[in-house]
Structure formats: C-alpha cells, structure tokens
C-alpha cells in the first residue's frame, strides 16, 4: 500500500506531513503530523492532546521530551495509541503502537514562554513509526511528491 504525504511550503520552511485519525475511545479526531526522521519516537503534540481531550492522567509518566521546543517538556506514554491512515487507493490501515504525548497538565505549570512555544509545535511521526510498520519514506521535492510505501 502507498500512503500519500503532504508537502507543506511556508515562507520559512518546507515540511512533509501525514494525516492520521485518532481512534482512542472518546478522543476521535484528525491529526496532521510532521514526518521527522530525526525523532526516534512518535509524539502527539500539546495542541493535539488538548484538541483530542486525551485523558493524560490515565497514562504512565515517561522521561521529558528534549528538543521539542525550549528545553524539555513533560511527557507520558500511551502503550497502544490506536489510529488509522488512508492509502492512496482508499484502503484504511488500523495501527496500534506506543506513542509519547505531551503532559499538558504539567506543561501548563511551566513558565508562559515555554508553555506557549510548546503549544505551537506540531505532532511528530518518528522513526519508530516507519520501522514498526515496515514503511519506506520517499520524498521527491523536484516533482513535489512524497509518500510512504509498505515494504
């Protein structure tokens, strides 16, 4: 299966993203996640945690996430985050995998500049996603195409 990615051009950056749909009970919603080959883990951002109304306190604490904004941000781990992605030909692939989420309750105790910056950062698809799902990442900027392909 092939899963198309979006190439997002802004005046200051170029990013490649994937649309995913959260299937956590009572937390359904669309997430636009940036593909980040420098991140070992998939991370659900503070704004997406808030939007999905994820029950943060129900998940176990994990090490703070470094390099995600200014300094580090508090995090928790969902052992089986359930979401779906849609293939180029319309097939739905259900995925269950561990992800880190930003602990918005602890984040909101941080200084305003740290908190405000963290809420601007997008969710991230990390290398764990590509590795666990046996996906090949293809980016052709010359032809403005990007996709994930099962191998």
Q: Any overview of this molecule?
A:
The protein is of the alpha+beta class and 151 residues long. The protein has a single domain, classed as Cathepsin D, subunit A, domain 1. The protein has helices at residues 46-52, 104-107, 112-118, 127-132; strands at residues 2-4, 6-9, 14-24, 27-35, 43-44, 60-66, 72-86, 92-102, 123-125, 135-140, 145-150. Strands 2, 3, 4, 5, 6, 7, 8 and 9 form an eight-stranded mixed sheet that branches. A hairpin with a 4-residue loop joins strand 10 and strand 11.
Helices and strands in order, then pairings?
Blueprint: E1 2-4, E2 6-9, E3 14-24, E4 27-35, E5 43-44, H1 46-52, E6 60-66, E7 72-86, E8 92-102, H2 104-107, H3 112-118, E9 123-125, H4 127-132, E10 135-140, E11 145-150
Parallel strand pairs: 4-9, 5-8
Antiparallel strand pairs: 1-11, 2-3, 3-4, 3-7, 6-7, 7-8, 10-11
Span from first to last CA? 9 Å
Category by helix and strand content: alpha+beta
CATH class: Mainly Beta
Biggest sheet layout: 8 strands, mixed
Mean pLDDT: 92
Fold-level CATH name: Cathepsin D, subunit A, domain 1
CATH superfamily: Acid Proteases
Counted by DSSP, the helix tally is: 4
| SSE string, helices as H and strands as E | EEEEEHEEEHHEHEE
CATH architecture assignment: Beta Barrel
The rough form would be described as globular
Total domains, how many? 1
Percent range of helical residues: 10-25%
- Multimeric state: single chain
What is the number of strand segments?
11
The value of Rg in angstroms is: 15 Å
| Low-pLDDT residue intervals, each spanning 5 or more residues | none
Q: State which percent range the strand residues make up.
A: over 45%
